[in-house]
UniProtKB/TrEMBL annotation:
It holds the Pfam family rRNA_methylase. This is 16S rRNA C1402 N4-methylase RsmH. GO terms for biological process: methylation. Keywords: Methyltransferase, Transferase. GO terms for molecular function: methyltransferase activity. Gene3D superfamilies: Vaccinia Virus protein VP39. It comes from Saccharococcus thermophilus. It comes from the Bacteria.
């Protein structure tokens, strides 16, 4: 298949936005795959801020980064992403070029702990305040579980109403696949 699958396409979008020396955010670190990718992407002079409410996710991400000797360019918070404006020091505000959200539950973890639309939307609003112009927020929406359906609908309602003078919003989805495949919402700050 030539068309980029969902996860590779998140990287295409992040590669457009995040360059060496930049500041990036992983809003749902989980097992740390995206955090590691962002840490490599920003290089030695950049910085990544990662959030997750579960201690298990912070530990897994920390171990993954350590294994790759990249922990020192990442700050991890065991906190909800809707606290990012207070957690990320002011000196980094205005310098964030990319942020990623992988919604849903921690793979291999407690499936009852899932992202919630209210806090996801608050986090997006905070990011839009402190991101650089042309910064991109990527959300991977998993809607194969009941709460995922609620989150999907709330997010789509929210992004469809966003002022086009403020942001560009993209939806990238395979529309003939069975079993509710995940899709991407990308928001670029204007
Ligand atoms: N990208 C991750 C990876 O590479 O493994 C997977 C992320 S997983 C699909 C979603 C994560 O979001 C879970 O680890 C969960 O604990 C976390 N989460 C749920 N609500 C959150 C919130 N309000 N703030 C930050 N993280 C949250």
């Amino acid at each position: 298949m030539k068309l980029a699958k969902i996860l590779p396409f998140t990287r295409v979008l992040m590669d457009m936005a995040v360059k060496e020396g930049d500041i990036a955010v992983d809003a749902t670190v989980g097992n740390g795959h995206d955090t590691l990718y962002l840490a490599e992407r920003v290089g030695e002079k950049g910085r990544v801020f990662g959030f997750d409410i579960q201690q298990e996710a912070i530990a897994a991400t920390s171990a993954r980064l350590q294994e790759h000797h990249l922990l020192e360019r990442v700050t991890l918070f065991q906190a909800s992403h809707d606290q990012l404006i207070e957690k990320i020091p002011d000196v980094y505000h205005g310098r964030i070029t990319g942020a990623i959200f992988n919604l849903g539950y921690l793979p291999g973890g407690d499936k009852r702990i899932v992202t919630k639309p209210e806090s996801t939307i608050r986090a997006i609003e905070q990011l839009l305040q402190i991101m650089k112009k042309e910064g991109i927020i990527v959300l991977v929406v998993y809607h194969g579980h009941p709460e995922g359906v609620i989150e999907r609908d709330a997010l789509l309602d929210y992004v469809r109403e966003m002022d086009q003078k403020r942001v560009h919003v993209l939806k990238y989805a395979f529309i003939n696949q069975k079993n509710n495949p995940p899709f991407i919402i990308a928001i670029e700050k204007r």
